[in-house]
Design brief:
The protein has about 425 residues and is an alpha/beta fold. The chain has 18 helices and 12 strands. It folds into 2 domains: about 45-145 and about 310-380, D-Maltodextrin-Binding Protein, domain 2; about 155-310 and about 385-425, 3-Layer(aba) Sandwich (D-Maltodextrin-Binding Protein, domain 2), CATH 3.40.190. α1 runs antiparallel to α13. Keywords: Signal, Transport.
Length: about 425
């Protein structure tokens, strides 16, 4: 890859800090050595999620004569990433300057006072630059608290040869009911993520938001938030899961299925439909299935109501305890510049959080034009998981009450609502 210029427009320094931590975690932590190279140039340490070199390349692009940016890799598991960062930040660790955050943890870190404030002018720029779903996932209490970096979404992948056996018109929106019926009647299996893990909560959330509902509202109230999963939308979501789990289209491993096993089901002789992230094209696209892979908008939960595909990605936050807070805030503008979003996408397959990033030729070359357009359309409509500091508790409660899929019925939303409230109020443990 040709080298990229390190010169970028800079945001104003002087970010304020959100108030002190709202929670404390007991821990024993060994801090890293002080930052800075032998020349005395300040070093910004960016804690990143594991990838294939994209974030390290962006860090190099954004290093300047005023500071260098280096990377430290967090654990592979997102939950372990959260734990490591939260423990160190709860202790006021000054050695973390920048951090890559999964969307479900953004509200938690902001509410705890772990994230430095982003100046209003930069907030506005990042909002205007990002897809609506990316900006929403990066916002807490009306403030954009992390800079959207890359974004992911799910689409409905299908085997063209299988759909040819059905009467489905994949150029038009399809519903979960239609997909399940088509697969059941023609010997196909549908790949979903329904193990007892975060991916299952992603599916439940997409089904509920696709029916016009929310798992929780008034989330600024913390553990006093309104739990709204027991609703018509919640019951519509439960109906979809119940229908698939009890149908001929359910894979034998549905209760332990994840992104990987669902992909394997899709690639098998019984493969028909799959909901999964953008990387599936790299696994099965082009000629890997003999040109048999198609793609369409995420299925509708309720016929006639637009689907809300799942949203995933990464936002970059600045630690409120960094000794280099002003420089770290300044670096956000370069790190999330659309050109650098494209650098990251080319190396990792993790797609930009902005339409300008998609306009970069390196991104356009990754996928067919019609798939690029579908990704962007899906990101505009995508629904992040409920923005709350208590998402980890809510997600765990959903997994406990909606798993296994074969146990889901019209009573599940009510039961899960009560369990979520009990967990949030400390009356029950996960």
């Amino acid at each position: 890859m040709a080298s990229r210029s390190r010169t970028r427009p800079r945001g104003r320094p002087g970010a304020r800090r959100i108030g002190g931590p709202a929670v404390s975690l007991a821990l024993a932590c060994t801090l890293l050595a002080a930052c800075g190279d032998d020349s005395g140039t300040p070093e910004l340490v960016w804690y990143i999620n594991p990838d294939s070199g994209g974030q390290a390349a962006v860090a190099e692009n954004c290093s300047t004569d005023d500071y260098t940016i280096t990377t430290q890799v967090l654990p592979q598991d997102a939950g372990q990433q959260r734990i490591q960062l939260a423990r160190r930040l709860a202790a006021g660790d000054t050695e973390i300057d920048l951090m890559s955050l999964d969307p479900p943890f953004t509200a938690e870190f902001a509410a705890a006072g772990y994230l430095a404030e982003i100046p209003e002018d930069l907030q506005q720029k990042f909002r205007e630059q990002a897809f609506e779903s990316a900006a929403e996932a990066a916002t807490w209490e009306d403030q954009l608290v992390v800079a959207p970096f890359w974004s992911n979404t799910q689409v409905l992948w299908y085997r063209k040869s299988f759909v040819d056996q059905t009467d489905l018109d994949m150029s038009q929106p399809v519903t979960w009911d239609q997909v399940i019926e088509a697969a059941s009647q023609n010997g196909g299996k549908i790949g979903v993520q329904a193990n007892k893990y975060e991916g299952y909560s992603v599916w439940v959330n997409a089904l509920i938001t696709g029916a016009g509902g929310q798992i929780a509202e008034n989330t600024e109230a913390g553990n006093e938030a309104d739990i709204t999963i027991d609703s018509e939308a919640g019951r519509a979501a439960a109906e979809v899961i119940q229908k698939l789990a009890s149908s001929e289209a359910a894979p034998a491993d549905i209760s332990v299925s994840n992104e990987g096993t669902a992909g394997t089901t899709f690639g098998s002789d019984q493969g028909s439909f799959l909901v999964n992230w953008t990387y599936i094209w790299g696994n099965y696209g082009d000629d890997r299935l003999g040109g048999d892979i198609g793609f369409a908008r995420y299925p509708q939960t309720v016929e006639g109501e637009e689907s809300r595909p799942p949203y995933g990605g990464i936002g970059i936050g600045v630690s409120a305890f960094s000794d280099e807070e002003e420089r770290a805030v300044q670096a956000l503008e370069c790190l999330t510049d659309p050109e650098n979003q494209a650098v990251n996408a080319e190396l990792t397959g993790n797609m930009p959080s902005s339409s300008a990033g998609y306009d970069e030729q390196a991104v356009q070359d990754l996928f067919p034009p019609e798939l690029i357009a579908l990704f962007q359309e899906s990101l505009e409509a995508a629904a992040p998981r409920t923005l709350t500091p208590y998402w980890s508790d809510i997600s765990g409660a959903i997994q406990s009450t909606w798993h296994p899929p074969s146990s889901v019925d019209d009573q599940t939303p009510e039961q899960s609502a009560q369990f979520i409230e009990d967990v949030l109020q400390g009356r029950r443990l996960l």
